[in-house]
Amino acid sequence: MIEHSQSAEQQSVAWRVLCTRQDLVANSGVVALLDNTQVALFHLPQYSEGEQLFAVENRDPKSGANVIGRGIVGYIKGDLVIASPLYKQHFRLVDGSCVEYPEQRLRVWPVRLSDDRVEVAIATE
Amino acid sequence: MNSNMTPINNQTLVIIGNGMVGHHCVEQLTERGALAHYQVHVFGEERQRAYDRVHLSEYFGGRDAESLAMCEAGFYEQHGVHMHLGVAVLEIDRERKEVVTSEGRQAYDRLVLATGSYPFVPPIAGADGNSRLVYRTLDDLDAIRAAAKGARRGVIVGGGLLGLEAANALKSLGLEAHVVEFAPRLMPVQLDPDGGAALKARIEELGVRVHLNRATSEIVAGEEYAYRMNFSDGESLETDLIVFSAGIRPQDALGHNAGLNVAERGGVVIDSDYQTSDPDIFAIGECASWKGNVFGLVAPGYTMARNLASLLMGEPHESFIGADMSTKLKLLGVDVGSIGDAHAATPGAKSYRFNDEVNSSYRRLVVSPDGSQVIGAVLVGDNSFYDTLLQYAQNGIKLPADPASLILPAGEGAPALGADALPDTATICSCHNVSKGAVCCQVDAGCVDLGDLKAATKAGTGCGGCSALLKQVFEHELSARGVEVDKSLCEHFAHTRQELYGIVRVEGIISFDELLTKHGYGQIGCDICKPAVGSILASCWNQPITAPSLVPLQDTNDTFMANMQNNGTYSVVPRIAGGEITPDKLIALGAVAKKYDLYTKITGGQRIDLFGAELHQLPDIWGELIDAGFETGHAYGKSLRTVKSCVGSTWCRYGVQDSVGMALVLENRYKGLRSPHKIKFGVSGCTRECAEAQSKDVGVIATENGWNLYVAGNGGMRPRHAELFATDLDDQTLIRYIDRFLMFYVRTADRLQRTSVWREGLEGGLDYLKDVIINDSLALGAELESQMQLVIDRYECEWANALKDPEKLKRFRTFVNDERGDPDIKFVKEREQRRPLQAHELNLIPLAEEAL
């Protein structure tokens, strides 16, 4: 299990529970509300480097619609990516950068599975 | 090159004749903006506007006059051309510069003769009525059809190109067809004796009887049949009707009577700039004689029309330099080709011959006296050699070391003439005069799509004979510029979709992971290969796409079984098979739309689209729709969409079959079939074609005897008329052909390739497709049918399947940790329905807030 939280532990962070493992859909995405922000969660239980979980912003910067969680997960040129379902541009799951349009970017959160709880890290004041 | 004529505004241009060449001239003139300079009047003797005479025999195969027309009905009006159809020009008054018609007089400044030709009927005693039919116009064909009623046998006099076409027409009318030819062989102009013999053997195999060396001396009443033809050698032949096709003669009477110079063998004499002996009168096409020659093919006629249009507009134009009379034909299904000096008439010319008397295949290659160049060829039985030989002949390409290899059967290692061997001046499309250089220009300008290339240059859109060569040259030029013509699906699979389909079938693979592990690279896949493989698995095994292993493969529309719209909401389209719906179901649909406040619109496919549903609302909406008796409409899938129908014989006074009934059968049979792209059907109850079936992937049109089947049509971005595939089918045969057609498409098409593009890319074209589907040439028929049956047997409404399983419904939540909908989705009211709020309207008050 890889946690995308390497630096998060050093900062002042809080882990917030979003949902449970049973809410996730294998090799695909679901969306959870984090206060007023929409977070898309992608779960790859059988990835070669171990189980993977990613939390990225659900809002597609091109269309302005909240649809990223409903895209197709893929692996392109060495990166795990999510393809936006509306205009098909790809975002890297690790850092939210866009493969085709550098000006587009998705916010990402550190995320982990704690027992069966899905938790994301948010910075605290 | 001359360009010294300047057009003067408001001159009057009169064109006499509205055949293919006359029409092409008008088309070329309008493209050049001629209507700003000329008042254009067109006089056509026939009632119909210009139609495709090259495909005249298809009139008996089910095509009507309208579908043979060269242009849309409003073309002439739209461009401001004054059209006088059914108006014969009686006289040209050169002194007053007027034409005299049955309707009065029309002045001209310039006049174009495009009157074409008429069939020559030798003076034979007793030839009259049904024993003196000809084969040239639609009216002629109507007369033949009328004569064929109740007839058993028909004779064609003349074994040339048109005569054999006419024999085919008689055959398709159900007559026993005989061809009587004066010369000792068929097609004496184009073929040598061995070629003629091979052709005779082939068409006799098809049931057409051929009589050579026969001169008809008289026609008298028959005993067993209506007429008896007595030949000069004492033999005779009885028949019910006789069609003369003994050659054509230029229709030059108007010119002749007006005192224009007329050639000895007929035709108004023109110079190389299409000018007759009167400088204000021009002649083009088959009515014109250039250096004593009349050109009876459409390509030189088009060349003349095109160049004359430039000349009349004062643009630089090309003078006429004669025309290549090489031809490639399919006569009664038999390939016949003739190039250049087919008879080796050039002094010192030498020939290579290949003669297969077992299969009646013949090929002759005529080379120059020094043996360095191709100067002619004759082909019977296999035209696959034609394109290469024509390029050798037209471009003076140096022969390979072993010239005989050019006509030997495949497998003998014939060196293929690569696209790079062609010079830039090589003509690729002779109908529209497109050279290899013109193709290169388009590629240099950034064209990377064959369809775009055809649209820009018109190449391949005339007779279509050059399609294969065009594609080859295009792909070669792309590769030469470093544009990848790699057929790999994506980085995960170095296979085409067709290859993956074969692997899945043969190895019985049922999951993406298995396919990727055994035949792919890397892991996970991507948004190209996952949906493609998902579609292949569904086509082959038709498991519910809601299965956990299949869900991650689907595009969002298939995943959630609804169509995502620009604001992330979905539209819902229940199936309304054939467009038939009861009032109760219509009310139920309205009630659901009202309850969930869904924007409602009638689609082009005769059903109803409900917009604006959020993800979490979909299961509730579908629960109510299924309770009301609806099932999913697959509007979200690359699959069968709709079968559009007209009301048919049940209500319509013109209908000849129950088109709605057939539409229901077809839609219910093929619903749920996943395919490379979406598929649309249409079923019309009569030839008026109100269901627009000819713009669909599969079109069915009722006839008095059954159904005509059309395939590979398309609307949308690149419209394409469907092609007539088979006629007068009974219900079972119709369904069998459609089963095979669809499965063959599913099996061999590329990813996201509609049937139209797939069909255009098929080597061997429509004939090949007919061979596979109708004649079962690949012995695939039974397999395709059983594969289709499996898909049909496993059909299940995907929404009903999902609603039964709480685990599958888990995904239909806008938020997994909150019951609310997406707060960013905002609507405004327009025309009494809600629609998404646009970004620039954020100052408007959304509906949700209005309610607060």
UniProtKB/TrEMBL annotation, chain A:
Question: Which UniProt keywords are listed?
Answer: 2Fe-2S, Iron, Iron-sulfur, Metal-binding, Nitrate assimilation, Oxidoreductase
Ranges for domain Rieske come to 16-120
Q: Which Gene3D superfamilies match?
A: Rieske [2Fe-2S] iron-sulphur domain
What transmembrane ranges does the database entry give?
none
Q: Which SUPFAM superfamilies match?
A: ISP domain
Q: What is this protein called?
A: Nitrite reductase small subunit NirD
Stored NCBIfam families: nirD_assim_sml (TIGR02378)
Automatic annotation (TrEMBL), chain B:
Domain of life, per lineage: Bacteria
Q: What keywords appear on the UniProt entry?
A: 2Fe-2S, 4Fe-4S, FAD, Flavoprotein, Heme, Iron, Iron-sulfur, Metal-binding, Nitrate assimilation, Oxidoreductase
Q: Which residues form the BFD-like [2Fe-2S]-binding domain?
A: 428-475
Any matching Pfam family:
NIR_SIR_ferr
Requisite cofactors: [2Fe-2S] cluster; FAD; [4Fe-4S] cluster; siroheme
Where does the Nitrite/Sulfite reductase ferredoxin-like domain start and stop, copy by copy?
A: 565-626
Entries under InterPro entries matching the protein: BFD-like_2Fe2S-bd_dom, BFD-like_2Fe2S-bd_dom_sf, FAD/NAD-bd_sf, FAD/NAD-binding_dom, FAD/NAD-linked_Rdtase_dimer_sf, NasD-like, NiRdtase/SiRdtase_haem-b_fer, Nit/Sulf_reduc_fer-like_dom_sf
Task: Please report the stretch or stretches of sequence annotated as the NADH-rubredoxin oxidoreductase C-terminal domain.
Answer: 326-392
- Please indicate if the UniProt record lists Acetylation as a keyword: no
Q: Which residues form the Nitrite/sulphite reductase 4Fe-4S domain?
A: 637-755
Q: Which residues form the FAD/NAD(P)-binding domain?
A: 13-291
Q: In which family does this protein belong, per the annotation?
A: Belongs to the nitrite and sulfite reductase 4Fe-4S domain family.
Name of the protein this chain belongs to: Nitrite reductase large subunit
Read off the lineage from the record: Bacteria, Pseudomonadati, Pseudomonadota, Gammaproteobacteria, Pseudomonadales
